[in-house]
TrEMBL record:
UniProt keyword annotation of Nuclease present: no
Entry protein name: 4-amino-5-hydroxymethyl-2-methylpyrimidine phosphate synthase
Described function: Responsible for the formation of the pyrimidine heterocycle in the thiamine biosynthesis pathway. Catalyzes the formation of hydroxymethylpyrimidine phosphate (HMP-P) from histidine and pyridoxal phosphate (PLP). The protein uses PLP and the active site histidine to form HMP-P, generating an inactive enzyme. The enzyme can only undergo a single turnover, which suggests it is a suicide enzyme.
Cofactor list: Fe cation
Annotated coiled-coil segments of the chain: none
Domain of life of the source: Eukaryota
Keyword Ribonucleoprotein: no
Alphabetic keyword roster: Iron, Metal-binding, Pyridoxal phosphate, Thiamine biosynthesis, Transferase
InterPro entries for this protein: NMT1/THI5, SsuA/THI5
Family the UniProt entry places it in: Belongs to the NMT1/THI5 family.
Pathway named in the protein's UniProt entry: Cofactor biosynthesis; thiamine diphosphate biosynthesis
Source organism: Talaromyces proteolyticus
Reaction(s) catalysed (UniProt annotation): N(6)-(pyridoxal phosphate)-L-lysyl-[4-amino-5-hydroxymethyl-2-methylpyrimidine phosphate synthase] + L-histidyl-[4-amino-5-hydroxymethyl-2-methylpyrimidine phosphate synthase] + 2 Fe(3+) + 4 H2O = L-lysyl-[4-amino-5-hydroxymethyl-2-methylpyrimidine phosphate synthase] + (2S)-2-amino-5-hydroxy-4-oxopentanoyl-[4-amino-5-hydroxymethyl-2-methylpyrimidine phosphate synthase] + 4-amino-2-methyl-5-(phosphooxymethyl)pyrimidine + 3-oxopropanoate + 2 Fe(2+) + 2 H(+)
Pfam families hit by this protein: NMT1
Amino acid sequence: MQRFHLTATGHNINYLPQYIAERHGFFQEQGLDATFSIPQPWDGVLDDLAEGTADSALGGIWVPTMYHNRVTNYTVFAQIANRCPLALIKRGPSQDFKLADVAGATVLMKSGGGASVGLFFKMLLRENSIDPKSVDYIQDLDGVMLGNLFQGGMGDYFVTDILSARTMADRNPNVSVAMEMVSQGDVPWSVYYRETATITDEVLDKQKRFLAALAKGIDWVLQRDAESFKNELAELFPTVPVQVAVDVTNTFRHNSMWTSPLIPRGGFDRWQLGLVGARLVKDPLAYETLINDVPVLAALKAKSDQS
């Protein structure tokens, strides 16, 4: 067995196929002793890569994008989440809600896990011809704190992860989920990357085997209604009502959250334009500048040959 250590920015339901691959021995089938950690604060993943204690980081592609040719170059080699896992909560019922309704409102957006929440929401506004500057934001506080403040009367809307949003709406009849952003098109939301300078043939081979197991995990989830593995969901997300976890998983299954470890060019290009709009980079990076798809293509070919 070869060790493959992954350092991740959090424990999220959009990482579910990876957790399934671990629980069902798919990594071991590829000769990998896969281990996982979540540093605090989240940007410790970069320290883990720099110190060589991790084979890969898992997090937002906006980090490798903004670091490129400025601090450290990272190579992205796959994705796990193909859509945004956030949701927008509002006060009262959500019938007839339109995204344009947020203009002139105050929107709370959780922080603590990076900048992705604000980056995506403001990109979505621009894509829908809504000036992000027409909205007031409160976004430099912890998600739990903001959730409590929102329910206590602060602001008009709250952007948070879909599990938290559905749990809040399930428990609080005074709020509702206005939009689930998994329905809002492809972006490589959660990706795997490491320092470009550290990539060797051995690294590429380990990445290929890791991705073969991940692809099997994705297929496993897509082929099963979440009700059939609700006990696993309960163990993975013990603080969430199990039916909420089941329903969110099925929503993700049916809305292209998980497709393939291969990053689609269309989603990549869209997210790059969003990062330009956020001023993280001056110009969008080309696909080949940031991504090496050789390991994932090799993994998918091997999977196809075995079918």
